[in-house]
Structure formats: structure tokens, C-alpha cells
Amino acid sequence: MRALIAAATGLALACALVLTMTALGSPTGETSPKPLLTTVPAHP
């Protein structure tokens, strides 16, 4: 019975955390203007 209560409590806390993060929204910011390197540079 204790395990069931602990699992229910953990699930409720996880759902509350997800809902809180969703309510806050994504952080404001910008992406880097520099392109990312997708290939390994050639060795000399």
C-alpha cells in the first residue's frame, strides 16, 4: 500500500512540474547567427 501511495505522489509531482514548466513557456533568447559545423575538418 505504501508503494502505491508513493507512486501516486511521485506521478502527481511529475505532472505538476510539467504543467508548471508549460505554463512558464519557453525562455526568450536568440539562436547563434554562426552555422554549426556538420563535418569534420580534413586533416593536414
TrEMBL record:
It comes from the Bacteria. Residues 25-44 are annotated as: Disordered. NCBIfam families: small_SPW0924 (NF033490). This is SPW_0924 family protein. It comes from Streptomyces bullii.
